[in-house]
Amino acid sequence: MDGGMVASTQALVRFVGVQKTYDGEHLVVKNLDLDIRKGEFLTLLGPSGSGKTTTLMMLAGFEVPTHGEIFLADRPIKNMPPHKRDIGMVFQNYALFPHLTIEENVAFPLTVRKTPKAEIKDRVQAALRMIKLENLAHRRPGQLSGGQQQRVALARALVFNPQLVLMDEPLGALDKRLREHMQLEIKHLHETMGITVVYVTHDQSEALTMSDRIAVFNDGIVQQIDRPDALYERPVNSFVANFIGENNVLHGSVENIEQGYCRVALAAGGSVVAQAVNVAGSGAATALSIRPERISILMDGEATDSPNRLPATVQDTIYLGDHALAILQVAGNGEFMVKLPPGAHAALGHGQAVSITFRPEDCRALDPV
Amino acid sequence: MTAAFVAGAEGPPEVSLKRRLKRAERARQFKALALVLPLLVFLLFTFLGPIAGMLWRSVDDWEVPQVLPHTVSALANWDGKDLPDEKAYAALAADIQSARAAGTVAIAAKRLNYSVNGFRTILTSTARNLKTAPEPGTAKDTLIKINPAWGERSSWAAIKGASGPVTSFYLLASLDLTRNVDGQVVAAPEDQSIYRDVFARTFTISFGVTALCLLLGFPVAYLLANLPAGRSNLLLIFVLLPFWTSLLVRTCAWIVILQSEGIVNDSLRWLGVIDEPLRLIYNRFGVYVAMTHVLLPFMILPLYSVMKSISPAYMRAAASLGAPPVTAFLRIYLPQTLPGIGAGGLLVFILALGYYITPALVGGAGDQMISYFIAFYTTETVNWGLASALGAVLLLATLVLAVVYGKLVHGQQTTGGMKN
Which residues from B are below 8 Å from A165, CB to CB? Predict the structure, then answer.
């Protein structure tokens, strides 16, 4: 499931104890240790101000770490200027040079490296063919659509075969359809060329679609770094559980812990059994995380073999084509979501009393929020 | 909605649609015209009118036809190879007498004196000595007896050359050219050839000032464009400060600073760098310093506005693609500032071409620019023809430059791909 591309375990980039502050008081990046494997597609995901872009800028060389060291292919690069790092970068607004043609833009990294003219011509042609824009070679960036400019920026960052390509929210300015199309195109390029990509985004579906691994940033700290499926299925804390995908939260306190599972008394009454993932111990407060598709609705005293069964009141149902959502009131949470097969919502009416059930292994007891 | 659309399409389709479009457009055009009309009228009377008047004056030749009308018509068919016939002499004698009675001899004398130095004396002495109309048939002898100049072809060529209604005399004179006795265009005598030098000097000084402004203004504009907003606004006030003081005051300030007993010379002497005061003013150096100072904001502001619009992402992109700072600057930043360099350069150059007060106050005799001579001819000698001709040549040169600049800028497209 590594996106068809088995990333080698050898680290191409290593952040060691990196800290960054702009004002000398507040750390934007707090003690970052991060290994980026050769050939992998790593996404830095997080809300704005979480430190992901600063991390990328330190890697590109536009920001200097306040503390710590960054290694690129085992060489320390903290004090190496950006133009010597051999890192391709795709910017948020493409940053295509407006006074140069598409061809000249793509040729730029080769001409500054004094590559022979004939070779430049061949490589630029190949790059333009790769992004299917050979016929626009002599246009200027202003004459291209957003998607075309994006592809040119991509070609320009790849044409000199950098050991690492950084992308700073490159699809942010595109509309939804084009963005989804470009996600697949970038992913395809990564797989065929075998390059290492570090991708910054705040869009979790983009991160899930494209990445081999995702580093979830919040408050200057990497909360969790893992494969997309692992992040979704096995979040290690409440921030990750809430940030990736839909999540239902129930508050309570731990009664006892036994063999990795714990019994949690809900604040609103009742108790459930959950996986003890991130709890301090008996008596500690916890937030339970349950994904909407892991919950079943029981009608009129239907039986369940799960120890978890809670009364619920239907608030609303939403039809979404391929599935439906039921919004319930459960243990004080009025926005408790349950994913239903299409059509199943028809049996539920507003204010109807039902029961819900979920397996202990699908309910994760995490840090309280 | 659909019904109305279909009905419209069924009728006489294209004509009606085109007409409707035109009608809609016309209303909008009228509105636009009404908005600019006051300014247009204002410009017509204060700008276009005077310019047209000036251009006309540079070729208008009214004095001689008005004062000596019969002579002009008698000379109409003169081939200029020999002295004119008796009829022309008689006409001249009659014209001089009536001009004397009307008191207009001096008008024609002044105009003819431009063409032939000393003509004023010839005409006024003839007018004084021609007491009575000569007997028929003796006009030629009488006039030649009064002044032998009337027996020379050049005197008559001068009258014919000034017999209007339009003349190339002033325009040729402003380019150091003149017509000889046979009407061919030749170089003016050396002691009268000054305007080509003055034009060359004007363009040299303007070019020098433009180059200095660019050299000094570019880094300042770069700094302004890349500082945080608060500090760049403060600096911008310093750039604009000179606009709040009069040009005269600023120029006089330079006199105070640069004169032999001025701040600069005193400081240098006090420091022991020099013994004798340096000559910093009333020469070309003073002109360059004062004009550069006065015109610098006109270079900085267009540069600043262009640089402000260049996203820092371009330089970052260039660096990430492997360009060292100098290469990135030369190949990515500098080309994008060209519209600003062009606009600022053209502005400063054209403003400098017309500078009058500053070189007049801080320059020496050899540093006066063309405007000084235009002012001299309009206010001192009241030779409007030559003043207008010099102005017309300057205007033409400036227009050519503006067109060349327009072509250069139009040739390269600078619309960016950055949307922010």
Answer: none
Confidence band for B417, pLDDT divided at 50, 70 and 90: very low
* Residue A31: alpha-carbon gap to chain centroid: 20
- What is the per-residue pLDDT across B55-84, written as a single tens digit (0 to 9) for each? 999 999 999 999 999 999 988 888 878 888
Domain map (residue ranges) of chain A = 11-238, 246-366
Of the candidates A83, A84, A142, the beta carbon closest to that of B416 is on A142
Residues B138 and B212 occupy one common structural domain: no
Cβ separation A93–B322 shorter than 8 A: no
Residue linked to tokens 């290694």: A71
pLDDT in tens, B315-328: 999 999 999 999 99
d(CA A58, CA A60): 5
Domain total for chain B? 3
Q: What CATH class is the domain A11-238?
A: alpha beta
User: Alpha helices of B116-262 — where are they, by DSSP H?
Assistant: 119-129, 139-146, 153-161, 169-174, 195-226, 229-240, 247-258
- pTM passes above 0.95: no
Q: What are the chain B neighbours of A146 within 8 Å (beta carbons)?
A: 419
Can you name the CATH fold of A246-366?
OB fold (Dihydrolipoamide Acetyltransferase, E2P) (2.40.50)
